[in-house]
Request: fold
Amino acid sequence: MIIAGNWKMNTLPNEAEELVRNILQGLQDKKFDSEIVVCPPFTNLHTVSALITGSKIKLGAQNCYYEPKGAFTGEISIPMLKYFDVEYIIIGHSERRTYFGETDEIINRKARAILEKNLKPIICIGETLSERQQGKTFEILFNQLEKCLCDLKVDDSKNLVIAYEPVWAIGTGVSATKEQIEEAHNKIKNHIQSMFGIAHDDIVLQYGGSVTSDNSEEILSIESVNGALIGGASLKSDVFLKIIEIAEKTIKN
Ligand code: 13P
Reply:
């Protein structure tokens, strides 16, 4: 179970520090088996990295560029992220696809570069509302999977995290229903299985989109859900801690 907080473009350094300190305090002396990941903006990686050193919280980034260095003004490389002990990198988030033109081909290049450096990409896929209404959901998801995972090896799949984030559920307060998540997750796992020949149990598939402390029990209890990628609710330490507590109860053997 991987519970990851995607802070998006939120928090100044002092706010990031307060949020992380509160999460650390809430987890102090607690045993937990879930993998807890926080993904602050780049400008707070340094602060957060220093605070979580020695704890069980892992660090994630929200994006990267696939070239290791050079004349790419404004970009952040994977070695730069590794320096701060980043272990996970979110790529292909729908906000990056929509506002910054990130294509499946770019996401695939990033995924390969991340895996090459022994880090873990969290690859986001998801359909828009109009695609769902037109009955194109699975055509879209399978196409994203095939392009984003192109040329990856079976071994890579061990370090891969996929996040199913229906675009219409992100930041809307309307999460997908249990039935919609079950259907999508089973089909996504079947498709990945057909691509790599790996078992469902070896595929890490998170759900993201309006996850809160109120709906997380129902969502995380679904057999094919291996974690959550949480936006808004991860910015409130008490809510994020509550979701972690719920995740612990729903861990499947
Ligand atoms: P919300 O949890 O705010 O809907 O955002 C989900 C998301 O985009 C996580 O990456």
